[in-house]
């Protein structure tokens, strides 16, 4: 970036999860050369991200609910005390509140940007009209995948409004290795392990993964299927595993701060999502050298190369998901080959450094436009 910029990252989300990790990754890349700040709700997940941002040297702002009477004062007051060259808002579906963007405009921020992390999923015509009106306040829109960008083009957003900047992740520091990761999860050294990471929600599709387990156990009786994460579906998933008679094979270690290190325990990574923008966990698995079985949905299909770095199957199809997992569980050479190909693909196109550099280029373009 030109000179020392002041950059403020903002999200109204109460559950930022991967989106929040993306924001903190940008802060980590910019902290040495820019003045950076993070505005976020101090929910459980948000608190962890705010703490991490503070460790990186960022100013942090705990946001109240947008409905709180002090919300506008918190945002505007901070931006007046610490003027931002770039105000960068991060949202999911395009239906979140637009108060932050409006307040940043009112505070005189020269460049206001927004990154969309999920496809446009809102069908209501009134909300679509509101979205078109709201983006008039934004200088640049960023999509985290090409497929995601196309969903906004289909509702009439001109393609030139968007720049696609695919997600990226940093290499893991302090990898613990297979034996230590398995010991941390109570797994045997030689048993086959399928793993997924993420919030336990309908969108992430773990229900379909649990449904594959009876068939996989018939061929791999010592199989462990590990669902790292927590969320509203946990109890239902545990009951489903019990009803299928596979509760002993399906592990629920809950939220783990060392989740990424635990990837070393896996033989195969699986992501059975119904929707994605561009899944960070798939990139993290590829960085760890794991083959990835994912669903053929927006974002994932731009990360996983079917038959090269893993497999892509129809979403909501446990039979196809189970067959893809079985092919990899049955063939150690295939696992190693596809895992190595995935790591090469990560290094070539999905690093955090590349993502941050491309995002910074969008910032500079927006600032040049603001000066005209």
UniProtKB/TrEMBL annotation:
Residues 178-343 form the Glycosyl transferase family domain. Keywords: Glycosyltransferase, Transferase. Pfam families: Glyco_trans_4_4, Glycos_transf_1. It comes from the Bacteria. Residues 17-168 form the Glycosyltransferase subfamily 4-like N-terminal domain. GO terms for molecular function: glycosyltransferase activity. CDD domains: GT4_PimA-like. This is Glycosyltransferase involved in cell wall bisynthesis. It comes from Geodermatophilus sabuli. The lineage of its organism: Bacteria, Bacillati, Actinomycetota, Actinomycetes, Geodermatophilales.
């Amino acid at each position: 970036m030109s000179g020392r910029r002041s950059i403020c990252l903002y999200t109204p989300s109460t559950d930022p999860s991967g989106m929040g990790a993306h924001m903190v990754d940008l802060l980590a890349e910019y902290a040495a050369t820019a003045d950076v700040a993070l505005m976020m709700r101090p929910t459980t997940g948000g608190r962890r991200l705010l703490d991490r941002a503070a460790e990186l040297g960022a100013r942090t702002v705990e946001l109240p609910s947008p409905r709180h009477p002090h919300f506008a004062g918190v945002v505007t007051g901070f931006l007046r005390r610490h003027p931002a060259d770039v105000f960068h808002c991060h949202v999911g579906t395009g239906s979140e509140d637009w108060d932050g963007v409006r307040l940043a405009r009112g505070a005189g921020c020269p460049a206001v940007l927004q990154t969309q992390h999920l496809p446009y999923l809102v069908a209501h015509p009134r909300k679509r009209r509101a979205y078109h009106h709201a983006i008039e306040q934004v200088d640049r829109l960023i999509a985290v995948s090409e497929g995601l960008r196309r969903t906004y083009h289909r509702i009439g957003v001109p393609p030139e409004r968007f720049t696609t900047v695919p997600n990226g992740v940093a290499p893991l520091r302090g990898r613990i290795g297979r034996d230590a990761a398995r010991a941390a999860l109570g797994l045997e050294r030689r048993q086959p392990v399928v793993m997924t990471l993420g919030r336990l929600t309908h969108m992430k599709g773990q229900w379909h993964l649990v449904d594959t387990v009876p068939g996989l156990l018939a061929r791999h009786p010592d199989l462990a299927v590990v669902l790292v994460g927590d969320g509203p579906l946990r109890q239902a998933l545990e009951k489903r595993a019990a009803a299928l008679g596979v509760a002993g094979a399906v592990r629920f270690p809950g939220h783990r701060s060392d989740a990424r290190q635990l990837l070393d325990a896996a033989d195969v990574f699986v992501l059975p999502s119904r929707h994605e923008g561009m899944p960070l966990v798939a990139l993290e698995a590829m960085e760890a050298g794991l083959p990835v079985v994912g669903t053929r949905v927006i974002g994932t299909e731009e990360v996983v190369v079917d038959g090269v770095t893993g497999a892509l199957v129809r979403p909501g199809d446990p039979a196809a998901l189970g067959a893809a997992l079985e092919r990899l569980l049955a063939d150690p050479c295939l696992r190693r080959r596809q895992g190595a190909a995935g790591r090469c693909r990560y290094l070539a196109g999905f690093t955090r450094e590349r993502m941050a550099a491309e995002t910074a280029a969008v910032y500079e373009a927006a600032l040049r436009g603001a000066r005209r």
